[in-house]
Amino acid sequence: MPEENQKVILRFVDGKMLKGFIRDLKISEEYLYLEDESNHQHKVRLKELKAIFFVRKFEGERSHQEKKSFTGTRPGSKRVFVKFKDGETIMGNMEGEIPWERGFFLESMKEKAFTIVPVDGDSNNTKILVVTTSVKDVAMIGS
Q1: Nearest-angstrom CA–CA distance, 128 and 4
Q2: What are phi and psi of 133, to 5 degrees?
Q3: Please, which residues bridge with residue 82 across strands?
Q4: Residue 116, burial from CB neighbour count under 10 angstroms (0-12, 13-18, 19+)
């Protein structure tokens, strides 16, 4: 059964954005491949990205006010607050093991990226793949 294309918005560290579809994303690779809405293929270097936003729609909902507080924690997940080098912040639930050591230095993160699920279940973003080289700080909220 072929894997379905996933609708994403790529956010680059330089502020640029690119919308399109990704199939078979492998963060262990140096590059990923995106097909834009015009069926043009883009080869993107992972380290040029800030994050990959997996979205319901490319347009989003301009009238939607994003909830910025936790209303509960999903079983098996950890609450995290992420601050990017450009000053933007996001909060979400991270599943699985944390990709850093306790008392970590960001430069020594074990993984190239980690995934969080936004705290707002009504958000246009279904999940966010955060590229670790774009992160200034990460804090776990609670235990």
Answers
A1: 18
A2: -70, -15
A3: 90, 138
A4: buried
- Give the tokens for residue 63: 């009238």
For residue 107, which phi and psi values (nearest 5 degrees)? -65, -20
Task: Tell me the three state secondary structure of residue 82.
Answer: strand
Cα 33 versus chain centre, distance:
16
Angle at 75 between CA 72 and CA 78, to 5 degrees: 70
| Model confidence, pTM | 0.82
What is the distance between the alpha carbons of residues 101 and 41, in angstroms, rounded to a whole number? Answer: 37
Domain boundaries, the chain: 6-50
Residue 92 has pLDDT above 60, yes or no: yes
Question: What's the rounded Cα separation, in Å, for the pair 92 and 138?
Answer: 11
Confidence of residue 1 (pLDDT cuts 50, 70, 90): very low
> Which residues contact residue 39 at a Cβ distance below 8 angstroms, ignoring those fewer than 6 apart?
none
**CATH of region 6-50, choose from 3.40.50.2300, 2.30.30.140, 3.90.550.60, 3.10.20.740:** 2.30.30.140
Question: Can you tell me the mean pLDDT for 111-132?
Answer: 86
